Amino acid sequence: MRRTLGFIGGGKMATAMIKGLLHQDYPEEKIMVADPDPVRRQELSALGITVFPENPAMVAGAEAVILAVKPQKVEEALQGIEFPSGVPLLSIVAGYSTARLEKLLPGACVLRAMPNVAALVRAGITALAPGKSAREEDLAWGKEILQAFGRVVLVDEEMMNAVTAVSGSGPGFVFSFLAALTDAGVLAGLPRPLAGELALQTLLGSAKMAAESGEHPVVLREMVTSPGGTTIAGLLELEKNGFAGTIMQAVYAAKKRADELG
Known about the structure:
Order of helices and strands: EHEHEHEHEHEEHEHHHHHH
Distance between the termini: 35 Å
Largest sheet: 8 strands, mixed
CATH superfamily of the largest domain: NAD(P)-binding Rossmann-like Domain
Mean pLDDT: 93
């Protein structure tokens, strides 16, 4: 039995989740979303779901709720809501703890998740953590919902900000690498369309090889690193410029920012 599901916030991630659910044949009439932006409401309405301009009216008719707003907007978004006791609330708000949400909404059964943007193509990975108020059936519900967008891993909430830094922010780092690899091909003399195609398929193929082989990335790297060859020459330049350290610093900075948001 599919629950009537309400989204507080209709931004990009909420839209990705809604599209994933519809792709999995979740009934349109059982999905609602509240967003203050009339343009967003019009776009969401085109998906066949029910839209609301205000959160309290939407929540009143929901059997489960997903909170999908910016951290700075949480208290404003929840203002005036009389949350039905025992209804699960799944938050995808970066850095915002279940304990804070449980104080704001005493009747809610709170779960916290961090999906990533690959949910748009149903190839994401989402970390899920229960709050103290969550029951086993709430956790099972949350996992079922999130599997519409890709893989789900259960984690302790104390790990969630680190998860945010690796898999939540990670696609931004990967896209930056893809853009740089494409630009490097252009610098080396390739037409941009060809450089882009080569870079993208190289990234896709390498990720697939890592996923299917089960080998450590260092072992896979050794497979393409011949003595005195082109790859080792390029790797030397990456290490000269602190490639590995820069990636680690980027992830650590993202984690610190998630801590600050919370």
